[in-house]
Amino acid sequence: MNTAPRLHVVTGKGGTGKTTLAAALALSFAQAGAKTLLLEVEGRQGLAPLFGRSELPYREVELAPQLWGMSVDPREALLEYIEMYYKAGAAGRALAKFGVIDFATTIAPGLRDVLLTGKAYEATRRRPGNKSGSTFEGPWVYDAVVMDAPPTGRIGKFLDINAQLASLAKVGPIRKQAESISELIHSEMTTVHIVTLPEEMPIQESLEAVDELRGLGINLGHIFVNQMLEERELDVFNDKIDGVVATALRAEVNRYTNRVTRQEKQIALLEELDVIEIAHMGEEISFEILEFIANGLREA
């Protein structure tokens, strides 16, 4: 799979396996030799167990060869922002002591989104020895950045928040930073992948997200259709099987067959999009299964 867009945003309706696919996508890039950063921005610590950890800190830690990860905390991001752009580390710590930072990041969801997208921007644009997102020539620190982003229901507002902020802030570093982040998100360097299930509600929400992202001028990547059931030739049961058992088995076969039929109808609605189907892997996702999915994505 091509890493050219560099910032890969992964979204999806809750329960579709969004976090698992974000982790697998990042791992696939790392397996291919790309130095990759995996970002979690919702504070759920959903990525950590996939890599045998209890949590991810607000700092980059190595998860696997060529793969680093971190959980972006809005509070820490705001303190970092104050220090980076206003050189006011002591003042920022004083604000934190009096609860101002916690109040700001809790009461203003728009501010949270600015800080979270800002961290992705900084990581995507970072050069060696530089954390300000400078545009001077030289190699990038990370070849790819993968963000486990908010769900499809709010992905448009999340990604477009900086464009809205830039239109409100007339001058100063806030406007400049918002414009830079918005430019990155609306450029060829960023792409959004949607994770869905082969079911009516997730497919419908995914199609609505596709329309919203296209309307915002944000590039669309793959549609990962997760938990696909395999079509199977299921033989008629032998008459020697106990009648009650045979009846139960036939009911399961019918249920499975009907679900396969329904999923094919839903997949047909995505025919004009770049679809990658992911087989049903069960409820528990181990690191070995994550590697298996990543191998498949690398070859897709």
TrEMBL record:
<protein>
    <submittedName>
        <fullName>Unannotated protein</fullName>
    </submittedName>
</protein>
<dbReference type="InterPro" id="IPR016300">
    <property type="entry name" value="ATPase_ArsA/GET3"/>
</dbReference>
<dbReference type="InterPro" id="IPR027417">
    <property type="entry name" value="P-loop_NTPase"/>
</dbReference>
<dbReference type="Pfam" id="PF02374">
    <property type="entry name" value="ArsA_ATPase"/>
</dbReference>
<dbReference type="GO" id="GO:0005524">
    <property type="term" value="F:ATP binding"/>
</dbReference>
<keyword id="KW-0175">Coiled coil</keyword>
<dbReference type="GO" id="GO:0016887">
    <property type="term" value="F:ATP hydrolysis activity"/>
</dbReference>
<feature type="domain" description="ArsA/GET3 Anion-transporting ATPase-like">
    <location>
        <begin position="9"/>
        <end position="178"/>
    </location>
</feature>
<feature type="coiled-coil region">
    <location>
        <begin position="246"/>
        <end position="273"/>
    </location>
</feature>
<dbReference type="InterPro" id="IPR025723">
    <property type="entry name" value="ArsA/GET3_ATPase-like"/>
</dbReference>
